[in-house]
Amino acid sequence: MERSLETSVSQAVDAWLRWLPRWHPAAHRGRTRICRRCIGSPILRAAGLVDDVPHQVQHGLATRMKALVDHAVAEYTEQNLPVLRAELRAADLREAQRSYRPGEGLDPEFDGLQLDPDPDPGQPYLFTLAELGESQARTVPPPPPLSDDAKEALRTEIALADQCANETGRRICELLVGHRLAIHDAVERYVEPQVTALLDDLALELDSPTSPW
Question: pTM for the full model?
Answer without folding.
Answer: 0.79
